[in-house]
Amino acid sequence: MFKNLIIAVLVAIIVTWCFGEVISDWGHVMVSVGDEHLSGITGWISFAVVGVIMLLLGFFLAISMLGVLLFVACVVVGTIFVAGAASLWPVVLMAIVIIWLVKDRKEVTD
Q1: Tens of pLDDT along the chain (110 residues)?
Q2: 8 Å CB contact between 58 and 31
Q3: CA distance 11 to 8
Q4: What is the reported pTM?
Q5: In the chain, N or C: fewer CB atoms in 10 Å?
Q6: Is 109 inside any structural domain?
Q7: Cα–Cα distances in Å, from 12 out to 6, 50, 56?
């Protein structure tokens, strides 16, 4: 299994490099971060890293049903968390402030 993973990563790097060269030469595509254009090797490395990450995710999801279930569960939990945080943060903030204001304060006696 580990041998297949290494072969898959190498194939992904080579395919990414080939497509990057073709797109760069034919379409004059430049990768830019902020206002700076990345050089050829830096752009290639960034494309390769993204490609390898996608390949590893695909490999993990393809070899196991558990991987698919974990991925779907993470997406659902993340979506619920983001939607809840985006819509309910004022209510949560007010509840925290109200609890902070009305909680019992213990007086220190000697």
Answers
A1: 677 777 777 887 777 777 767 766 666 666 667 777 766 667 667 777 777 787 777 777 777 777 778 888 989 999 998 888 888 888 888 999 999 888 876 766 65
A2: no
A3: 5
A4: 0.35
A5: C
A6: no
A7: 10, 10, 10
